[in-house]
Amino acid sequence: MRIIKGKVTWIDILKPTRDDLEFLRKQHPFHPIILDELLHLSSRSRVEFYKDYLFLTYHLPMYDPGLKTSRRAEVDFLITQDHVITVHYEDLEPIENFFRSVNNNSHLKERVLGHDTGRLSYYLIQEIIAFAMRQIRHIEENLSYITQEIFKGREEQMLQKISYVKRDIMDYSIISRPQEILLNSFLEVGVKFWGNDAKIYLNDLVGDYYKTTQHLENYRQVIESLETTNGQLLNAKTNRVMQRFTILAFLTIPLALFTSLVSIDFVGAFVAATPTRFWLIFVSVVVLVVSLVIMFKKKGWL
């Protein structure tokens, strides 16, 4: 548990225990059910307005290099008029960075903790949204890589890369989409809790969130276009291979027919079964093959 005090107090709890809940119970009469929920992850994002405090569950996407996709992390907020309590279940980069910045910068500390809990909550959630924006940079990097490699004849490898990016965008969207409803609800209840002065800050959070979704939608459109292009290139390559096999099959038909005809016994009535007959058949077959190859090349089939 870490505590930073100013005009308002920020309490940050990592991996809450029963002792932590008991400490919070002594600080403020939070509902026992709310406190019990802090012991485990929540299945959905939500904001709830009680008589003298707010309870907020915020889910943020975090990229997992092992899974090659985004997974969900959670921060819970208990907000009173003079305390902001954040609870998370793993080390989170935005919380760690913000804590160090506030703790080591007196000017920032005064700006963040020298007003009300609405201002502190704004800066905390803004940092989380900024982190979420940074988390989609790897998607942009993957899209740039695919764009550069897609025309180098490696369509099969690109198909796998495209599939990973599509899954990552989908997982990121599943995690972040509920925050639109959450932040709009937070705007509504926040104005009731802190007054109209908080409206401009809470509106700014909604705007920052929409910037993230706009980038995500752009990436979704780009990856779909790249998938279509890669599919067309793969189909073209497949068609070229099938065309060559078809031509080879066509070449073998006259050869097989010719060989069968000259091997029939009645040919011996006209051409004696001598070495000359063998070489005559051989040369005829070669001439036929070469002629067909030249004709196919002129037609552009080979």
Automatic annotation (TrEMBL):
<keyword id="KW-0812">Transmembrane</keyword>
<dbReference type="GO" id="GO:0005886">
    <property type="term" value="C:plasma membrane"/>
</dbReference>
<dbReference type="GO" id="GO:0015087">
    <property type="term" value="F:cobalt ion transmembrane transporter activity"/>
</dbReference>
<dbReference type="GO" id="GO:0000287">
    <property type="term" value="F:magnesium ion binding"/>
</dbReference>
<protein>
    <recommendedName>
        <fullName>Mg2 transporter protein CorA family protein</fullName>
    </recommendedName>
</protein>
<dbReference type="InterPro" id="IPR045861">
    <property type="entry name" value="CorA_cytoplasmic_dom"/>
</dbReference>
<dbReference type="InterPro" id="IPR002523">
    <property type="entry name" value="MgTranspt_CorA/ZnTranspt_ZntB"/>
</dbReference>
<comment type="similarity">
    <text>Belongs to the CorA metal ion transporter (MIT) (TC 1.A.35) family.</text>
</comment>
<feature type="transmembrane region" description="Helical">
    <location>
        <begin position="278"/>
        <end position="296"/>
    </location>
</feature>
<dbReference type="GO" id="GO:0050897">
    <property type="term" value="F:cobalt ion binding"/>
</dbReference>
<keyword id="KW-1003">Cell membrane</keyword>
<keyword id="KW-1133">Transmembrane helix</keyword>
<feature type="transmembrane region" description="Helical">
    <location>
        <begin position="247"/>
        <end position="272"/>
    </location>
</feature>
<dbReference type="GO" id="GO:0015095">
    <property type="term" value="F:magnesium ion transmembrane transporter activity"/>
</dbReference>
<dbReference type="InterPro" id="IPR045863">
    <property type="entry name" value="CorA_TM1_TM2"/>
</dbReference>
<keyword id="KW-0472">Membrane</keyword>
<keyword id="KW-0813">Transport</keyword>
<dbReference type="Pfam" id="PF01544">
    <property type="entry name" value="CorA"/>
</dbReference>
